[in-house]
Protein: Glutamate dehydrogenase
Amino acid sequence: MQNRTTIEDVYAATLQRNPGEVEFHQAVREVFDSLGRVLDKHPQYVQASILERICEPERQIIFRVPWVDDHGRVQINRGFRVQFNSALGPYKGGLRFHPTVLLGTVKFLGFEQVFKNALTGMPIGGGKGGSDFDPKGRSDGEIMRFCQSFMTEAFRHIGEYTDVPAGDIGVGAREIGYLFGQYKRITNRYESGVLTGKGVTWGGSLVRTEATGYGAVYFTEHMLATRGRSFDGARVLVSGSGNVAVYAIEKVHALGGTVVGASDSSGAIHDPDGIDLDLLRDIKERRRERISVYADERGGRARFLPGAAVWDIESEERIDVALPCATQNELSEAQAVKLVAAGVVAVAEGANMPTTPGAIRVLREAGVLFAPGKAANAGGVATSALEMQQNASRDSWSFEHTEERLSEIMAGIHERTAATADEYGVPGDYVVGANIAGFTRVADAMLALGVI
Ligand SMILES: NC(=O)C1=CN([C@@H]2O[C@H](COP(=O)(O)OP(=O)(O)OC[C@H]3O[C@@H](n4cnc5c(N)ncnc54)[C@H](O)[C@@H]3O)[C@@H](O)[C@H]2O)C=CC1
Ligand SMILES: O=C(O)CCC(=O)C(=O)O
Structure:
């Protein structure tokens, strides 16, 4: 009972200290809801104020990013890097470039990243960064000038042994290239391990591009196996059509499933015959067009639903698996009810916190297998850690070897999460399992390192 009071007191203090940062509050609430049992078993965490410390970032950096657009006008954006926790290793986590990015967004992502990275079992702390810069409609030259200006401030805060950023929404290999180029230029050091998600010819790792989507599907495969199910013959919905979504679709198809819906922020596509991934990639990655073009060019039974989410597709078909791979809070309680009615057996978060608390409740009460992002999408950051290993040893591994490592890591995360849920008396609860397994690894390291 006393520990429940501690949790509520620390949560109340967190709200007071971080006013208005609703996504950060949501992420903290979700982790704290799993921790009562842990504090009962480990009073040393309470004595050392681990809860208070773990939700206070070690460092938060906010900076001005001035750059010149193609019309010669000076533009100003805000840059962020939140260095959340380095008990297990250098801060590690992506950069998001999107107009909605605020400090609270970066804090929620950084907080999630701490536990996710711990769950991988690899030596990486947690951090996240980004900017309210909107890359949509910007020319290549504008993207480059923005990235160079961002790095002109960020370089003094990052490094192979300090903080290692990577991509996230709006940041892919092109942006990592411009960021790395500017870092190299300013520091006069070819420090490959300072960023991950690099191109394979200049220090990147094979499989990093595919890793988050593939990893989420591997994790789901393990969950399905606990019910004697697999992807073979499964009908699947995937939200988004970016990096995570595309490779989740590819792996589902490779395993014999059929993805029948995908989306972007303008609406959803429904293709009952299965998404033609080559066409989708050509439209989204090469031509950078809206997803409605898919329905125009695919023909047949494919249709575009303007403004709709993929979860709102009305159809008689059953849906076996749902993989939210777009953005936070994109799957609502009402949409979870629809998925349950459509027969869904598993939902795994490829994105970070895409499922609202109400939707998670609906899915859990209906007995749907539910994998939180910090477990299901950890394959991306885990492969970033493999990229760091390759950089440190000046080596580069084959696709097969790296994918094999990814697959083992995802199996390990599934095993650790499921075993922790069993140990704490909630078998099959991947939310509690992931939160406790991630938390205890970080908390034990924090105890060992003293009050710092
Ligand atoms: N890239 C990575 O390695 C990792 C990414 N993630 C998470 O996965 C999610 C997607 O990231 P990426 O694929 O890297 O980004 P991306 O920028 O490549 O793609 C994002 C996709 O989401 C779509 N989208 C954005 N808002 C939407 C909305 N409201 N409704 C429907 N679609 C929407 C965009 O149109 C785009 O297709 C994010 O939550 C990110 O934090 C998590 C782990 C690693
Ligand atoms: O690979 C990385 O370091 C970043 C991955 C990331 O941002 C995430 O897991 O959300």
In short: The first helix runs from residue 2 to 17.
